[in-house]
């Protein structure tokens, strides 16, 4: 090993879901939205001209921040934007989790949390979900350096009641509590109304799922003006121009089209509810999901085997070789046509495998 290597910040990176090079795949593996973004978004993108690209973007991202403040009924001083919610969450970990005490998050959750914790040298403790994959609010009452959890949780899709989220925030007034609402638009209750009441609550959301803009990388956080000020101080000490001109234009336009947003989210929810019935008829079980994915398991077929068979047939879903969940598949809700193709393959494969 070279001498310089002894001083490298070593990290075990997060493994993102596969982005296959083929286009003729049914891609239900990264919780993308199967529908295109609002029509105005593409118009805004084509209006980005050479002159606007020649210049640096607005470092304060004011157009997007103001649109989001309106949309969330808060003041612009309560909104922070970043390059996807991964960027916002990473920034929040760096900014708020510095006490030296362990932060708390569920044992089955977004697998980026332990990666950021390791990267920023933040000690952490995982609290076990109950047997039904529910977050137990009682587990968040011990002394800690901060709390983070998704609502709905990933990859389970299980949502908490707002009163339970509030319980966790209320019992942790001395630390920052981050609620990661990447999937909240698909049917869970947002904690946004609580930010006026609790200055230690940071709510993080994304344009990647319900707004069909995963490729544009837009995420945001809403919290008390003090939290947002601290986040901005860290951002400006890192990279002032996180959001591109194109992302600012697309994001601002997306927020304006409430009707399109509701229509698309509504279609996905309907497809999800039908998927619950169809998959249950096939013998799958799953926790009740309020997200744009289902976390399914089957008593007779091993998830890994099914994952590989699906993949060979160019249907991509997500498999996690992790304790407690290594017999589950996370299936993103696609269009009705994509879901029918999935059911067709599953029926054939299960009939063949059983025979
Ligand atoms: N939080 C959770 C729980 C997620 O599943 C994801 C998607 N991988 C993210 C945050 C980050 O999404 P993005 O960076 O695209 O906003």
Summarize the structure.
The chain has 355 residues and is α/β, with parallel strands linked by helices. The protein has helices at 39-46, 50-54, 62-72, 84-96, 112-119, 162-170, 225-236, 245-256, 258-281, 303-312, 336-354; strands at 26-27, 79-82, 103-106, 124-127, 147-150, 177-180, 201-206, 219-222, 293-296, 315-316, 318-319, 329-332.
Describe this structure in words.
- The protein has eleven helices and twelve strands.
- The mean pLDDT is 97.
- It has 355 residues and is of the alpha/beta class.
- Helix 1 (39-46) packs antiparallel against helix 8, helix 3 (62-72) packs parallel to helix 8 and helix 4 (84-96) crosses helix 7.
- The protein starts with 25 loop residues before the first strand and ends with a helix.
- It is 37% helix and 12% strand.
- It has a five-stranded mixed sheet, with helices on both faces. Strands 9-12-11 form a three-stranded antiparallel sheet, with helices on one face.
- Bound molecules: 4'-deoxy-4'-aminopyridoxal-5'-phosphate (PMP).
- Residues 84-86, 110, 150, 154, 180, 182, 206, 208, 214, 219 line the site of 4'-deoxy-4'-aminopyridoxal-5'-phosphate (PMP).
The ligands bound in this entry are: 4'-deoxy-4'-aminopyridoxal-5'-phosphate
Strand order of the largest sheet: 2-8-7-6-5
Question: So what's the overall shape?
Answer: globular
Oligomeric status of the shown chains? single chain
Number of strands: 12
Arithmetic mean pLDDT: 97
Which labels suit this protein?
binds 4'-deoxy-4'-aminopyridoxal-5'-phosphate; five-stranded mixed β-sheet; alpha/beta; 355 residues
